[in-house]
Amino acid sequence: MNYLKRSVLALSLLAAGSVFAAEPVGVSIDTSKPGPVINKDIYGQFAEHLGSGIYGGLWVGPNSKIPNTKGWRNDVVGALKAMHVPLVRWPGGCFADEYHWKDGIGARDKRPVKVNTNWGGVEESNAVGTHEFFDLVEMLGADAYVNGNLGTGSVQEMSEWIEYLTSDSKSTLANLRRKNGRDKPFKVAYFAIGNEAWGCGGNMTPEHYASLYRNVETFLRAPAPYRPRMIASGGNDNDTSWSDVLSKQLKRQTDGISFHYYTIPTGKWEVKGAATGFAEQEWISTLANTLRMDEHMKRNSAAMDQHDPEKKLGLFVDEWGTWYDVEKGTNAGFLFQQNTLRDALVAALNFNIFHAHADRVRMTNIAQMVNVLQAMIITDKDKMLLTPTYHAFEMYVPFQNATFLPLTLSNNRQYALDGASIPEISATAARASDGKVYLALVNTNPRQAADVAITVPGQTVKAVRGRVLTAAAMDAHNTFAAPQAVKPAPFSATAVDGKVSVQIPAKAVVVVAVE
Ligand code: AHR
Question: Ligand 1 pocket: which residues have CB below 6 Å?
Answer without folding.
Answer: 48, 92-94, 195-196, 319, 367-368, 373
